[in-house]
Amino acid sequence: RHCPIFFTLGGCPNDRCGMQSLMFVTDDERQVDFWWVKPQKSNPANLAKETLSLHNHGRHKNNPGMSKPFYQPLAELFQQGTVVGEWRFGLQVVGIGSVVSTWRAFIEHVTKEPAEKLYVHFLWEEDWTLDPFAQSKFVRGKIVYQKDL
């Protein structure tokens, strides 16, 4: 069973596939995976519900394909609880009891006292390095988060 933890938006705006989003999910073993969530072909304003599950083949194929190596490091930050600079990335079970509990991805400012967790809803990508051979690579955008649960 996979639980959505956050989405990335803006990473694949083009005429061929519409405005799709990457959905990052985790399972009970804290393994983070991700795949494309797409609009309906016949009605692009609506979600293709079939893409809420991973499909490696067929009509609703939505695996990350060639995008996987670019987004895998992001998944690993949360999965491994990595600290980068002053920020810790991680996963936390939240909720009351086993029936209501769910996973949330967070970013925590570790040098701030008291440490404050920012629960991620989505990452909006606005600009990124286009040249794969550039010495300095970047992704620029916004993080939409919730401070309190």
Brief rundown of the structure:
The protein is mostly beta strands and 149 residues long. The protein has helices at residues 68-80, 97-100; strands at residues 3-9, 13-14, 18-19, 21-26, 32-37, 83-84, 87-94, 102-109, 116-128, 139-146. The strands form two sheets. Strands 1, 4, 5, 6, 7, 8, 9 and 10 form an eight-stranded mixed beta sheet that branches.
Write structural notes for this entry.
There is one protein chain. The chain is mostly beta strands and 149 residues long. It contains two helices and ten strands; from the N terminus they run E-E-E-E-E-H-E-E-H-E-E-E. The chain has helices at residues 68-80, 97-100; strands spanning 3-9, 13-14, 18-19, 21-26, 32-37, 83-84, 87-94, 102-109, 116-128, 139-146. Strands 1, 4, 5, 6, 7, 8, 9 and 10 form an eight-stranded mixed sheet that branches. Strands 2-3 form a two-stranded antiparallel sheet. Strand 4 and strand 5 (32-37) form a beta hairpin. The radius of gyration is 16 Å and the shape is globular.
% residues in beta strands: 35-45%
Uncertain spans: none
* N-to-C CA distance: 23 Å
Largest sheet: 8 strands, mixed
User: Mean pLDDT across all residues, rounded?
Assistant: 89
The chain-level structural class is mainly beta
Number of strands: 10
Secondary-structure element series: EEEEEHEEHEEE
In one word, what is the shape? globular
Helix content: 10-25%
Radius of gyration: 16 Å
Note the total helix count: 2
